[in-house]
């Protein structure tokens, strides 16, 4: 089975990504502070039996550098452009796309800008920006203090700081989610303290071809707690 680390050029940055398996490409975009190494190997192996799994490292994390963009200037749109550079480097014209948390924001941006490339979209434990419901507002209000902390706390990586800044300045996708034309699977947990289930129901109403699964007891990182069950849900949606 193919399993390699490769690099794609996006402007002046080298975007590292792991590519595993064969078949229809499934691009998995990680959340704030995560890299390709934070996805459990059991999940990757299960998915790679059916798909060509691609896991990019966001800027400043894992094997990807920041390039010339300082952390405080990083944007969700630039992360989406980096994912597009990876897809183009592999020569894929159509992909399955999965994004977790901040990665879900990046996936939304990608799907709106490149609708012809996304066959199916899975948004996992994410939100659609500063206009979302009260609980998500609470999360977004926390980002600005987090951003300030990241600027003065040396133990945080540049990539973590960049992600916090990107979330804080993202205008959101509220006015654009109606443009998402592909089948979309919304996966949320009802015990997620960051992304309240209200956000899931709001997104279900906004996206034309969306279906929602709300997992009882599911947390923000339920893929870590229940990797086999999570992989089965991914396989079921993208395999249909």
Automatic annotation (TrEMBL):
Pfam families: Abhydrolase_1 (PF00561). Gene3D superfamilies: alpha/beta hydrolase. Residues 25-126 form the AB hydrolase-1 domain. Keywords: Hydrolase. The keyword DNA repair does not apply. One of its GO terms (molecular function) is hydrolase activity. It comes from the Archaea. This is Alpha/beta hydrolase.
């Amino acid at each position: 089975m193919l399993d390699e680390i490769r690099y794609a050029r996006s402007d002046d940055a080298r975007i590292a990504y792991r590519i595993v398996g064969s078949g229809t490409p499934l691009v998995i975009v990680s959340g704030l502070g995560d890299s390709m190494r934070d996805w459990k190997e059991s999940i990757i192996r299960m998915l790679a039996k059916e798909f060509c799994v691609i896991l990019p490292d966001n800027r400043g994390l894992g094997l990807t550098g920041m390039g010339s963009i300082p952390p405080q200037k990083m944007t969700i749109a630039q992360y989406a452009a980096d994912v597009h550079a990876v897809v183009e480097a592999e020569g894929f014209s159509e992909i399955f796309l999965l994004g977790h948390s901040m990665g879900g924001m990046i996936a939304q941006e990608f799907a709106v800008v490149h609708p012809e490339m996304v066959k199916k979209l899975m948004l996992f434990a994410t939100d659609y920006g500063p206009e979302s419901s009260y609980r998500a507002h609470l999360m977004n209000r926390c980002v600005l203090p987090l951003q300030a902390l990241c600027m003065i706390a040396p133990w945080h990586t540049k990539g973590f700081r960049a992600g916090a800044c990107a979330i804080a300045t993202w205008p959101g996708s509220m006015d654009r989610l109606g443009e998402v034309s592909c089948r979309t699977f919304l996966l949320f947990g009802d015990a997620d303290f960051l992304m309240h289930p209200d956000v899931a129901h709001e997104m279900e109403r906004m996206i034309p071809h969306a279906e929602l699964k709300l997992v009882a007891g599911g947390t923000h990182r339920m893929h870590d707690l229940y990797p086999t069950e999570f992989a089965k849900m991914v396989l079921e949606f993208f395999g249909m």
